[in-house]
Amino acid sequence: MVEAELRKGQVTDALDGLRLALGEKFLCFRTKVRNANSQRTTHRAWDNIHKFDAEARQCCSTYRYAQNALHRLPVDQDYLGTLKDITEDDMKVAGDLTDESRFGQRSVTLLGFGDRQSG
To answer: Which of 16, 26, 90, 111 has the highest Cβ tally under 10 A?
Structure first.
C-alpha cells in the first residue's frame, strides 16, 4: 500500500512537471523564437525549446513508468481508469492558444455567408 501511494505521488509530480515544461516551452516560443532578430538568437531560442521538450519527454517517461507500476499493484480500479496514456498530440499546444490573432481559430465562431437568408 505504501508503494502504491508513492507511485500515485510520482504520477502527480510527473503530470505537474509535464504541465510546467509544456508551459515553459510555449512561453519560450512566444517570447524568444518569434522575437529573435538574428541567427544567433534564433539558435539559442530553439536550443531552449529543445531543452523544454526534453524535460517534457522525461516527465512523460516517468509518468509511464509509474503508471505501469501501478497496474501491477493492488490499486483501486477507478483510479487506474483515470490514468490515460500520453500521446504525441497531448505534447502539443493548440495553435489558437499560442496566437490570439490567428485566422480561423476554433474558439471563434462567425456567421457564414451561406447562413443568411436573403429577403
So the answer is: 26
